[in-house]
Specification:
The protein is an alpha+beta fold and 322 residues long. 23% of the residues lie in helices and 29% in strands. The protein has 6 helices and 16 strands.
């Protein structure tokens, strides 16, 4: 399996700036996709989310942009729009085709060079190179500057990243997820309950502190301390309408709750997008069940595939030094 590109019609590209420790991920579907969204975070940074709501005039979108750089990173979507316009792709207004490109960002300014952020040029370049090949995972694209477990700030956090996975139902129905994990909370393996990435006891420690337990003891962070976000995209080749896609996004949020502790905090800007490309018939409840599972698996892959950057250790290096 290739990840999100297992869904026919989807292309994915990454831009990774290792100097600034940031980047963006562009998901293209030039033929358009029925889409929905579910927002649970309280520190959301986005554009064009209203185009995903049931009842909106626009019935399909043409790309999604996930980017670092906080609100500055939303500029990357302008470059993707320019690329799609050049290809003649967009909503036909009668006088021009307007590409519909929702975008969401995460806060990674505290790990690298806060003055270098994803911009329109980066978005355009990524759109040009997006492909249906296997999706690269780990500390790439929007996941480059992602960190997790920030009760004590980035210096005692662990490396987050980007993960993707696909599951198949009988009859050839596919459900895929791509998740960028920059959570405030720790990441736990749902199978064991064990913390696999998160807040560490000290900047030089390789022992996880257990954020949830410490928070119950009264240890908290002040407001707007370290904004965080997990961004997920769930896609299927089953045929859904806008209302059904919105419900699929809501059901997929369960996948975040299974792996991130605590989740959906005041510091998180968590968003799940759902895309429908295809004509296969499938039960929505079954799709939602599977969507939650692939989201959880993608979160685990994001932290297991991540690499150490800017002195924030990844799981693979913490394991080696324990």
């Amino acid at each position: 399996m290739k990840g999100l590109t297992d869904i026919a019609g989807i292309r994915v590209g990454h831009a990774t700036d290792l100097h600034a420790v940031t980047g963006c991920t562009v998901i293209l579907f030039p033929q358009g996709a029925v889409a929905g969204v579910d927002v649970r975070g309280s520190a959301v940074g986005e554009r064009e989310l209203e185009t995903l709501r049931p009842g909106h005039l626009v019935d399909r979108i043409h790309a999604l942009v996930l980017a670092g750089g906080s609100a500055f990173g939303l500029e990357a979507a302008a470059g993707v729009m320019r690329y799609l316009e050049e290809q003649g792709i967009g909503f036909d207004t009668g006088v021009a085709r307007v590409p519909i490109v929702p975008a969401a960002i995460l806060f990674d300014l505290g790990i690298g060079d806060a003055k270098r952020r994803p911009d329109a040029a980066m978005g355009y370049a990524v759109a040009q190179c997006a492909s249906a090949n296997q999706v690269e995972e780990g500390s790439v694209g929007a996941g480059t500057g992602a960190t997790v477990g920030k009760l004590f700030g980035v210096k005692q956090a662990s490396k987050g990243g980007l993960g993707t996975t696909t599951a198949e139902l009988p009859g050839g129905v596919l459900v895929s997820a791509l998740v960028v994990v920059n959570a405030y909370g720790d990441i736990r393996d749902p199978a064991t309950g064990r913390i696999i990435a998160g807040a560490r006891r000290a900047p030089d420690s390789h022992e996880f502190a257990d954020m949830a337990a410490l928070m119950k003891q009264g240890i908290t962070r002040p407001s707007f301390a370290v904004p965080s976000t997990t961004l997920a995209v769930v896609a299927t080749n089953a045929q859904l309408d806008r209302v059904q896609a919105t419900k699929l996004a809501a059901m997929a949020q369960t996948g975040l709750a299974r792996a991130i502790h605590p989740v959906h905090t005041l510091f998180d800007g968590d968003i799940v997008f759902a895309l429908s490309l295809g004509s296969n018939a499938a039960d929505l409840n079954t799709l939602g069940c599977l969507a939650a599972e692939v989201v959880t698996q993608a979160i685990i892959r994001a932290v297991t595939q991540a690499t150490t950057l800017a002195d924030v250790p990844a799981l693979r290096d913490l394991k080696q030094k324990r």
